[in-house]
Design brief:
This protein has 157 residues and is mostly helical. The chain has 2 domains: 38 residues, no CATH class; 107 residues, no CATH class. Helix content is 60%, strand content 3%. The protein is built from 7 helices and 2 strands. A two-stranded parallel ribbon has the order 1-2. The N terminus is likely disordered.
Length: 157
């Protein structure tokens, strides 16, 4: 528990202990306070940087969006690129990493695609917002990554 008069170091130590304490217990469902502690912990602890692979995926997606005639060109701005990077970094933090991997980039793209009324990648495959949690999320990421890489094709370097 974090006390009101505690120092920043004491708060970090208490937060570290609170997050780590859930692992051995095998908790399947986190309480809201536990989730808040986890998010606070990863935001303070991790400052992810893009790997070359993640940069390639994000850059390729951005270029595809810029060149695709079916999208509103006004929506595909540098702010969208910055948002993709921030979303990928946030996903990396949630996954307890200091590097943004290509799977983090894929998660960011899926998030952006889900927010669009017309999607360049997932329209034909269903709505990402109506998906369920998978038993094997890593396999699901790999499957989604392959779909996105197929669509990006020449835009990847």
């Amino acid at each position: 528990m974090i006390r009101m008069n505690s120092t920043k170091a004491e708060e970090n130590k208490a937060s570290d202990a609170a997050v780590k304490s859930t692992q051995p217990l095998g908790i399947k469902e986190w309480t809201l306070p536990c989730l808040r502690r986890y998010i606070h912990y990863v935001k303070q602890r991790f400052k992810p940087v893009l790997t070359k692979e993640a940069e390639s995926v994000i850059s390729g997606y951005y270029q595809l969006q810029r060149r695709d005639g079916t999208h509103n060109a006004a929506r595909t701005t540098v702010r969208m690129l910055e948002s993709l990077i921030r979303l990928a970094q946030a996903h990396a933090r949630l996954m307890f990493r200091n590097e943004v991997t290509r799977l983090d980039a894929i998660a960011a793209i899926l998030c952006i695609e889900s927010s669009m009324t017309t999607s360049a990648i997932i329209d034909g495959d269903g709505n990402a917002l109506n998906s369920n949690f998978q038993e094997n999320p890593d396999q699901e990421y790999i499957k989604e990554e392959q779909k996105i890489r197929d669509k990006l094709g020449d835009y990847l370097y």
